[in-house]
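Data availability (excerpt). The following record was deposited with the supplementary files.
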Amino acid sequence: MSRLRRSSWAFGASLCCLLRPMAIGAEIDFYRDIYPVLKANCISCHNKTTTKGGLNMESPELMRKGGETGPGVIAGKSAESLVVQAASHQDPDLLMPPKNNKSGAVDLKPDEVALLKSWIDQGAKHSVPVARHVNWQPLPPGVNPIYTVAMTRDGRFAACGRANQIFIYDLATRQFVTRLADQDGVAHRALVQSLAFSPDGTHLASGSFREVKIWRLEKGKPATVEAKLAPAAPASAALLKQIAETAKVEILNHALSSDGRQLATGCADGAVRVWDCATAKLIVELRGGVVSRRQFEALDWTIAAQGLEQSFQNAAVTRIEAQNKALDELLKKANDTIVAMKKALPEKEKPVKPAQDARVAAQKTLDDVTALIAKAPDGKPDDALEKQRKDAHDALAAATMAENSAVAAFAAVQSNIKDAETDVQRITEAKVKNTADLATAKAAIEASKKLQDKSTADLVAAKQALATSDSRPLAVAFSPDAQKVSAFLSDGTLRVWAVASGIPIEEAGSPATPATTTLTSSPDGTFIASKTVTLTAGAESRWVLERVLGGEKPDSPFTDRVNAVRFSPDGQTLAVGGGEPSRSGDISLWEVSSGKLLKAWAERHSDTVLSLDFSPDGKLIASGGADKLARVTEIATGKQVNLFEGHTHHVMGVAFRADGRELASAGGDGVVLVWDMVIGERKKKIEGWSKEVTSLQFIGATSQIVTSAGDNLVRIVNDDGTQIRAIDKLPDFMQSAASTATASVVIAGGEDSILRVWDGTNARELAVFGAK
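Predicted structure:
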């Protein structure tokens, strides 16, 4: 079941618009008593955007105005009012709502029809809309769909909205972290419709029915950690010998996990390795820290981004060179025309003067004959003169035609020369511009290659430096649950890695960290020397609710479900998308630090907004709506700069490519459309889904797109339509997916309430998180 087909409880609770018992003769209020009935069964087809039969039923005035078949209501005459006749099925040709309608509207109950009649008989009076109280009811047991997922940019944490709750997971350790709660032990009263992490991962926005909540990662105060370099619990000599032979490197120290199943070894090559004690097989090799990982990720991003840049500029070079080739052909034709026409010009000019002289002579002959006729008695010429005048007229006509033909032929050649010369000038100017553009594109390619090559070399050097580092692990230790391994290194740093993923998750200390040596005696009379190093490390963090936008207040800025939230690239602005289904699609921008409303574009879409994304430079925002359209708005001016039409169903996802030159949109029609932002036209239609494509995201600085879909499929495709990878045969409808910049981690969730984690480079399942 997609977000488009959720039943009334899908708001996270029932919105009970119950008809109050009416006392006999009591005044019936339209918005209090009648509107809830109409909204549930009539207004979805009879509103300002979907006015079937020309009838809008959103107010008494509009109902009285009526539609194609006349007034909907006639004040004081319920029996004659069309809405009553249709609702009570008096006219077999006018049955409302229609059978098997797509809106899920049902026949009005007898007491609802009676109430409608009474209101009309009382005069079908107008009233003032009042905010209706929402009577929240608990969700039915077992209702835990995931409609939205989010992941921090570094791939460390994932969040999913499961029913009206939000769960946070550590993707490095593959463990549950926390469940966010506000009131009544849940994150929202209604279903969680949308989630988004801020770029730095310190804030999480969640959207639900008429409200947005912003959660903040509150870091604990730094704590003092003592790393004691004393001997750890020894492993068996046989195991250590076997591992040393496998590792082919000197083991400096080691530590057993609390359950005795894993062994961590600090090795002379600077690595920490974790082994399976039962099989002596390597589980994971640990190197580097948080800083080096961030450096690698930044270099990887630059390398990929420059690949995009070169691809774009190479396409520009190919296009310009093809244009130049076509221009060269046109230029040759124009020059050939000039040569040919100039050669023909004397030949065309030669008959002009004789033709002109002949026409002058013919005119003179006619004039002479006309003069003789004028001297004739009574001005009447005889037959001979009359024949002379006729012959002179004919001769003049022939001479004039010959002259016109000669002049026209000469003028045509001159015109052809002029047009060809104009073409030469235009083509030459185009080639000059193309030459400049070509030089710019080639320079951009060269600069991009240099940056990419430098980044690649820097990455290789950084990895090599890490592999050949002089820093050695002086002590290693497992966390109590064996999910983390820490090591104190000879350069004075303390590093912590997640065993499940091998990702460094914490780093403290520096080469300047002081150490003290102590000497203690053991019961057997021997002495043990050990070092204690004091480090400042981060304490446990927790998520706290920072602020609520909207909510249960009657004046909530959000009229219905908040289907989309998105942070700006700088993390300072939060975009919110929603609106009233079938009536409006609204977008608003909020200042994250204060909760202040910055901009609001009501009715930017004619139906509810389902998806949002900022352009990489933060200057544009793309929106997809249930009106089947994708729009791009310039944030500074609020002007619509692009309107993309092409989907035949709701636009459920929009995403900019990292360079901002492409926008992809996911449709309820089961296709992904790729739009060229440079020229504002559709670039590619990607097919291959049998149901709704519910979400999409460009993967890092690449042209690859990760999608979720209703056909139980998570699919990675290129923007040219090539399928990269498909994770199929999933058990249920998938609602949302997200990926790291390198596709090393892909997450997705859907109707079965399970958050799944894969390695997107090979589709290997890494973790499965259930509702409990």
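Summary of structural features: The chain has a mean pLDDT of 88.
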